[in-house]
C-alpha cells in the first residue's frame, strides 16, 4: 500500500496548485506525468511507450501470444482544478497490479496492457479522446472537436496510427472513483458498475413576439418566457416518474431581447437527460413535445444536439467481481455511472468492466476529492483478483 500511495501522490501532484490539480490534456504537466509514469513501467521491465496521441502504454507478455490483450488502466489528465483521484487512482491501481504480478513472478495466459489515457476529460478535443483513438470506436470526426487538433500538434494521421488491432482487444478492466455519493452514503466499499448512462441533449427554442412590457395586457401577450417557465415546471415534475440514475439538467437559458420593458420574443433551454434506459429518455422527450403543443401563442422547436447510447458493462465479469468481494468479505453494491469513462470506448462486443471506490461526500472534479486508503486497498485487491480470474475465464 505504501508503494501505491506514494505513486498516487508522486504522479498525481504533478501540476498541483493552490486551486487544485492541473494536468490538462496535452499540457506540459500532463506530459511530465506521462514521462514519469513511463519510467515506472520501464523499471518494471515492461515494453512501454507513449503513443502519437499522448497515451502511455505498457505491455507484459503473456504465456500465449495469440490470445488478445487484457487491458487495465484509466486516464492521467485532469479537468481544470481537479482532484488527486479522478483517473490517476485507476492508473496507479493498475500499476500496482503490474507490480504484484512482477513481485509474485506470475505469468498470465493473456498479454496484459496497461494504459494511462490522455484527454479523457476532453476539455479541448471532446471527451475520451485518447481511448477512442486506441479503440477506434465512435465517430471521432463527429463527436470530438477535431478543429483543435493543430492546436495540440496533431493530425488525423496520428489518430490513425494510435489505433490498436481490433482482434487483439480481449477485455478491459478499470477502477475509478465513483464521483457520486451512493457508495459513501450507503457505506459500501466497492461499486460494481453495471453500465454507463446514455446522454441526450436538446436545445428547446421557444418563439413568441416581443411587444411593449407596459402597454400590452397580460391576455394579449405572446411571451416566450411564460411558455419556457411552464415547460420547465412540467419537465421537473415529469422527472419524478423515473428512478435513479435518470437525471435531467437545464444547463443554460437564453432570453431575447432581455430588457426590463420588452416582452421576450425568444427563449432557449439547454437540456440534458441521462439514463441507462433509452426508452425512458425517449418517452420523456415525447411527453414534453406533446405538452409544448398546448401553447398556441408561441412556437416550440426541439433541436437534437447529441445522442450517446447507454453502455452496458459485461455481466460475466461483473459476477467475477462480486465473487471476489464475497470471498474477501468486502461490502459492495451494484450501480451505474452517470459520468462517461474510457471504458465506454471499448468496442461493444468486447467485455469491459469498471470497479468504483467511494468518493467522500460524493465530491469530484474538485481539489477536495478524497478516497480513504483502506477503500483504495480493498479496491486494488478486488481489481487484482478480478484480473487473475479474467485471465483464466475469458
Ligand atoms: Zn475520470
UniProtKB/TrEMBL annotation:
<feature type="binding site">
    <location>
        <position position="365"/>
    </location>
    <ligand>
        <name>Zn(2+) 2</name>
    </ligand>
</feature>
<feature type="binding site">
    <location>
        <position position="201"/>
    </location>
    <ligand>
        <name>allantoate</name>
    </ligand>
</feature>
<dbReference type="InterPro" id="IPR010158">
    <property type="entry name" value="Amidase_Cbmase"/>
</dbReference>
<feature type="binding site">
    <location>
        <position position="86"/>
    </location>
    <ligand>
        <name>Zn(2+) 2</name>
    </ligand>
</feature>
<keyword id="KW-0479">Metal-binding</keyword>
<feature type="binding site">
    <location>
        <position position="176"/>
    </location>
    <ligand>
        <name>Zn(2+) 1</name>
    </ligand>
</feature>
<keyword id="KW-0378">Hydrolase</keyword>
<feature type="binding site">
    <location>
        <position position="86"/>
    </location>
    <ligand>
        <name>Zn(2+) 1</name>
    </ligand>
</feature>
<keyword id="KW-0862">Zinc</keyword>
<feature type="binding site">
    <location>
        <position position="261"/>
    </location>
    <ligand>
        <name>allantoate</name>
    </ligand>
</feature>
<dbReference type="InterPro" id="IPR036264">
    <property type="entry name" value="Bact_exopeptidase_dim_dom"/>
</dbReference>
<dbReference type="Pfam" id="PF07687">
    <property type="entry name" value="M20_dimer"/>
</dbReference>
<protein>
    <submittedName>
        <fullName>Amidase, hydantoinase/carbamoylase family</fullName>
        <ecNumber>3.5.1.87</ecNumber>
    </submittedName>
</protein>
<feature type="binding site">
    <location>
        <position position="75"/>
    </location>
    <ligand>
        <name>Zn(2+) 1</name>
    </ligand>
</feature>
<dbReference type="GO" id="GO:0016813">
    <property type="term" value="F:hydrolase activity, acting on carbon-nitrogen (but not peptide) bonds, in linear amidines"/>
</dbReference>
<dbReference type="GO" id="GO:0050538">
    <property type="term" value="F:N-carbamoyl-L-amino-acid hydrolase activity"/>
</dbReference>
<dbReference type="Pfam" id="PF01546">
    <property type="entry name" value="Peptidase_M20"/>
</dbReference>
<comment type="similarity">
    <text>Belongs to the peptidase M20 family.</text>
</comment>
<dbReference type="InterPro" id="IPR011650">
    <property type="entry name" value="Peptidase_M20_dimer"/>
</dbReference>
<dbReference type="GO" id="GO:0046872">
    <property type="term" value="F:metal ion binding"/>
</dbReference>
<dbReference type="InterPro" id="IPR002933">
    <property type="entry name" value="Peptidase_M20"/>
</dbReference>
<feature type="domain" description="Peptidase M20 dimerisation">
    <location>
        <begin position="196"/>
        <end position="293"/>
    </location>
</feature>
<feature type="binding site">
    <location>
        <position position="121"/>
    </location>
    <ligand>
        <name>Zn(2+) 2</name>
    </ligand>
</feature>
<feature type="binding site">
    <location>
        <position position="274"/>
    </location>
    <ligand>
        <name>allantoate</name>
    </ligand>
</feature>
Amino acid at each position: 500500500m505504501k508503494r501505491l500511495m506514494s505513486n498516487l501522490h508522486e504522479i498525481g501532484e504533478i501540476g498541483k496548485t493552490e486551486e487544485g490539480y492541473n494536468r490538462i490534456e496535452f499540457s506540459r504537466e500532463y506530459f511530465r506525468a506521462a514521462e514519469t509514469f513511463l519510467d515506472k513501467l520501464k523499471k518494471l521491465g515492461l515494453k512501454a511507450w507513449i503513443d502519437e496521441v499522448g497515451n502511455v502504454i505498457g505491455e507484459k507478455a503473456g504465456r500465449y501470444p495469440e490470445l488478445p490483450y487484457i487491458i487495465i488502466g484509466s486516464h492521467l489528465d485532469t479537468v481544470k482544478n481537479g482532484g488527486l483521484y479522478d483517473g490517476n487512482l485507476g492508473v496507479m491501481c493498475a500499476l500496482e497490479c503490474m507490480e504484484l504480478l512482477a513481485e509474485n513472478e506470475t505469468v498470465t495466459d493473456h498479454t496484459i496492457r496497461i494504459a494511462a489515457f490522455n484527454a479523457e476529460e476532453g476539455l479541448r478535443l471532446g471527451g475520451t479522446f485518447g481511448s477512442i483513438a486506441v479503440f477506434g470506436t465512435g465517430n471521432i470526426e463527429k463527436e470530438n472537436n477535431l478543429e483543435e487538433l493543430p492546436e495540440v500538434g496533431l493530425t488525423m494521421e496520428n489518430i490513425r496510427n494510435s489505433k490498436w488491432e481490433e482482434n487483439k482487444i480481449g477485455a478491459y478492466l478499470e477502477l475509478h472513483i465513483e464521483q457520486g455519493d451512493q457508495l459513501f452514503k450507503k457505506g459500501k466499499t466497492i461499486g460494481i458498475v453495471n453500465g454507463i448512462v446514455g446522454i441526450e441533449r436538446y436545445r428547446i427554442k421557444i418563439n413568441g413576439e416581443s411587444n411593449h412590457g407596459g402597454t400590452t395586457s397580460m391576455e394579449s401577450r405572446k411571451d416566450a418566457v411564460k411558455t419556457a417557465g411552464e415547460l420547465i415546471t412540467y419537465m421537473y415534475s415529469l422527472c419524478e416518474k423515473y428512478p435513479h440514475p435518470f437525471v435531467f439538467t437545464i444547463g443554460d437559458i437564453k432570453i431575447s431581447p432581455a430588457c426590463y420593458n420588452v416582452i421576450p420574443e425568444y427563449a432557449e433551454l439547454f437540456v440534458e437527460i441521462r439514463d441507462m434506459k433509452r426508452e425512458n429518455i425517449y418517452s420523456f422527450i415525447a411527453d414534453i413535445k406533446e405538452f409544448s403543443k398546448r401553447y398556441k401563442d408561441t412556437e416550440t422547436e426541439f433541436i437534437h444536439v447529441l445522442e450517446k447510447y447507454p453502455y452496458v458493462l459485461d455481466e460475466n465479469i461483473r459476477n467475477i467481481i462480486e465473487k471476489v468481494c464475497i470471498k474477501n468479505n468486502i461490502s459492495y453494491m451494484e450501480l451505474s455511472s452517470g459520468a462517461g469513462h474510457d471504458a465506454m470506448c471499448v468496442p461493444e462486443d468486447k467485455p469491459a468492466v469498471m470497479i468504483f471506490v467511494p468518493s467522500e461526500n460524493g465530491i469530484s472534479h474538485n481539489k477536495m476529492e478524497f478516497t480513504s486508503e483502506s477503500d483504495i486497498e480493498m479496491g486494488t485487491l478486488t481489481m487484482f483478483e478480478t484480473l487473475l480470474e479474467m485471465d483464466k475465464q475469458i
